Amino acid sequence: KRKGKNSFSIFDNAMQQSLLDEHTLTADLNIALGRTHEIEPWFQPKVDQLGRFTGFEALVRWNHPERGLMNPGDFIDLAERKNLIIPLSDHVLRHACQQMSDWRRQFDIDSWTVSVNISQSQLAMRDFPEKVEKVLAATGLPARALLLEITETVVAENIYHSIRQMELIRALGVQFSLDDFGTGYSSLSYLRQLPIDELKIDKTFVDSLLHDEEGYAIVRAILSLAHSLKLSVVAEGIEEQPQWQELKTLGCEGFQGYLFSRPCPASQITEELGKQGLT
Ligand code: C2E
Ligand code: CA
Ligand code: CA
Ligand code: CA
């Protein structure tokens, strides 16, 4: 009986602690968004079949003064619930476009693109297409150099409004990528309806590619389906050479993963581009 009571109070404390944590973290996030360098996108290179860089995906990081470097998994959810996801996402979009624009000016990378993840509330905002247009104008990034990544969850709430928004943005020359493909409930119906240019095969499928026949069959089917729909395909989460080899054999055209590079801060990418002599 005593033990029971004891574990109950532990649970209670843990819950209180996590509420307290959430409260401080929300306050911190509010402050961080007003500062310049605390929240920034990092960049993970994308490569082609020959392993040459073709661009980057921007992935947000929060360098918290006390907690250290935090991944999106630690705060995106919170930002979404506390109505901070819009300022957070806008901040990332602006910084990613500015950085890519700077790199384009500095290095000979005309055909490269930057991919930015878009949240549900961001796409839903009526003024989002206008915001994208303004960011491109302000940063000098050509629309064709920007890809916006959406997931099924992002469009699910209001598919018709989402499609309309996407069409307005696409009219600017910006491209759309359907992220985490195959992990949701109705991937195929979205594939038919959404105005997209690229499809990203989720890491879970890449992981199963060489492990079982079913995994292999699914990846092959996704590639064949996407190509019939004239979509280009990027596979994500590639960690081993044989996975890359097999995906190339199957006709996949773009690749991302630790095998090529982890996400890194912009300064490190600048250094790398300099070394490659792309100026
Ligand atoms: P995602 O868009 O599917 O991004 C890919 C995630 O896989 C990233 O995690 C990346 O670091 C990780 N990754 C890449 N290659 C490998 C690999 O070879 N092995 C393994 N194990 N992982 C790999 P990250 O940066 O923690 O981001 C997690 C998720 O947070 C993203 O998933 C995306 O949904 C979301 N996210 C990131 N940045 C933003 C943002 O600016 N806005 C919004 N709304 N969401 C974001
Ligand atoms: Ca993504
Ligand atoms: Ca993904
Ligand atoms: Ca994923």
TrEMBL record:
Source organism of the structure: Marinobacter confluentis
Origin: domain of life: Bacteria
Shown chain mapped onto the complete sequence: 698 to 976 of 980
Transmembrane segments: none
Domain EAL: 22-277
Annotated protein name in UniProt: EAL domain-containing protein
